[in-house]
Batch of 4 targets.
Target 1
Amino acid sequence: MALSQSALRAPSLPGEAAHGTAPELDGLVAIGITVQATPGQTIVLEGDPCSHCFRVLTGAVRLYKGTADGRRQLIDFLVAGDCFGLLGAHYTYGVEAITHTTLSKTPRASLAAAVRERPAVADRLIELAAAELARAHDQMLLLGPKNAQEKVASLLLDLARRSGAQGARPAFRMPISRQEMADHLGLTIETVSRTMTRFKEDGLIALPTPHDVVLLNPTDLAALAEGAA
């Protein structure tokens, strides 16, 4: 199913600040379009030419790679403010909407032209590409030596940060399911559920609903994520 396109101008370029336009990107918002994706809808296929870059405006998407035996491995998920498609000649992963998702879709050729006209834009795009690489490095760490509690704590802190949750007890809505958490962390869903329950019993988090999380003690949770607790 093709992505639906809005007739309106895209509200932002990939990587534009969530609460305002970065100065070096002012005036460039018209070069992209807004597209909509329904839950489970494919946005890009692994191996396709990387002709566009995307920024998630609302909702969440999953990035996955296919294996030789036909299975799929979840490698990352992106929420509002995150970008993909800034690097490489081909998409090295498939992208699929988790929830109803709105994205800004910008031709890479248009961005290249903008860089030639306004060199300051290049610095911003380099920052965005570096963030894409940093997420890949963080995922390698999550799948490496950390134990289950450290992995789940790291993910909850990352979700809170990326959702913009603030305050002494940041609260946010989970953009992914327990199964997707497990796939992302290389754990079983049972292990993720037990770990979340333990965090709740230990007073680290509250779970007002199955989809909402409150970090009651972010400091101790951060220490646990780093193996210091």
Target 2
Amino acid sequence: MSTRTVLLAGATGLVGRGILAGLLADPGVGAVHTLGRRDDHTPHPKLSHHRVDFAALPPLPTVDEVYLALGTTIKVAGSRPAFRAVDYEANLAVAKAAHAAGARRLGLVSAMGADARSSVFYNRVKGELEDTLATLGYEGLVIARPSFLNGDRASLGQPVRSGEALALRISTWLRPVIPANYRSIRAGDVAAALLQAVPAAQGRRVLLSGDMRRD
């Protein structure tokens, strides 16, 4: 039985770490290549980490599918251009390089409200990336648009996002009356949904929080 070789960018994030754990546990995955700006010494026989400059990616190893989980906030990045450099330019660079390396399917961690025509800069950048990825010629493109993520950012050394924290509290209080797509969602549920959908994806598919929630 043949196994897949998979590329993951953003393995240290809330959703990315769930994707990585799922890939390493999947007997159908023979090798996982991760990309990051820092060294990673996580030991696993399937795992190869590549320290890269996303603005000047080297040729990538041959892969079957790719997952994009790179993301930041304007506050953390420091400016709109710096935010766009991560959320749009770095993700797009990986997608292009992975396609050139043979990837046929792609999974993207986007965001609720992503829309290239949005007046909200964050949502507009997310939407522009989705639309551009759809032009690259992938056989299957799966886009996850989660609402506010439920996960422990502090344990990853990431700043807690104030908007996320507030949304999580409100979601807990008002859960019965909040539509499924707008409730907060566990990062692990988003990872699991992508891992299930991407390997056999055909065409473009968008997953909202209501589609991904497992509770």
Target 3
Amino acid sequence: MAREKRASFRDEEYWGRPVPGFGDPEGSVYILGLAPAAHGANRTGRIFTGDRSGDWLFASLHRTGFANQPTSVRADDGLELTGAFIAAAVRCAPPANKPLPSERDNCLPYAVEELALMASVKVIVALGGIAWDAAFRITGPVRPKPKFGHGAETRLADGRALLGCFHPSQQNTFTGRLTEPMIDSVFARARELA
């Protein structure tokens, strides 16, 4: 993705490397997404930064008190998170936004290590079904495994709460499958649980 630039970004230096997590390392809410967007985080080097999914996510985090501003267009734009940390299940932009099982497996240890270092995390918010599944792979299996859905809530094997949220992709926001009140309600609930 970083080699073949989109015309609108042809003058920008693409980052094109694995994208680390970002936010408050003392936060009690860990937001787990799918993967860096090809021309968003893959370009900016910060998760959910510079793409429309991030526009929705950061606006909601701002409305619910986790972010100091409602937008993020580049890594040095002044965005700060308080009480929340954002990461991705897959750390590199996968072709067609569909990671292979091997890509998911290769990236999983990074999320495991992040959570091990973040003892204050009490709630994981999974943005989409792949992130929901990754949360169980990170923390240990629960039987029967709870089904993903928007607003789904369960406990993980390590005792942390897991909340499901439809991913703020254009597929969900343009169609009305995910609305601002819907995403805000998940982050308001995460704040309550934390």
Target 4
Amino acid sequence: MVTPRAIFFDMDDTLLDGQLAATAAWLTVSEAVGPEIGIEPERLREAIRRETAQFWKDEAAVGHWRLDLQAAREHCTRLALEAEKFDTSLARQISIDYLDQHRANLQLFDDSIETLEAIRDAGFKLGLLTNGPRDMQRGKVDRFEFEDRFDVIVIEGEFGQGKPERAVFEHAMKTVGAKPEESWHVGDNLYADIGGANGAGVHSVWIHRERLEKGDNPAATPDREIGHLDELRAALDL
């Protein structure tokens, strides 16, 4: 394998712990709303989790919703309330309250900054490739001061295309001057990150954080699997 020249990263659930933020947000929101409408908080959380998982099951079919995640969340919440026979008009406010709580609880993984600094100091080019709406994702870039840590940042809502589209990876590689065989991409999403990297000829690194499973029929097969970013640094001899 050619020594990489560029390392690209996904943002959510790779560098930022979105799952932790989501769990905390739904806990807070459901405990506030549940008693008001007469539903047990755990039952409400489970209903929303169930409908959300079903909605995003076929990512290729619902990919256009990535640019309006708030609307997608409201839609899933409405389905959950409908399934549990509760007032669906509450879906909008629940989804808004969730977003506020998610922002409040979102944080970096402990190994994110030290890994980015180690890779940068070693002379590799760095890229951040993230799907989602422009304002939401750009807000995270600004909040966590990512702008100066990367040589290229590709946000779906700005670029016009998102992972797994080949153009996203080709743009990142062209910007930093790297060929596919000189590039690695690290991400948690098998469909968008791993499938996209594989399709672009980039070495795909799936980070599961010891909480994700590929399942029996994964959307894509990674070239490399890691639990945490220290394994990436070890693979790069850092």
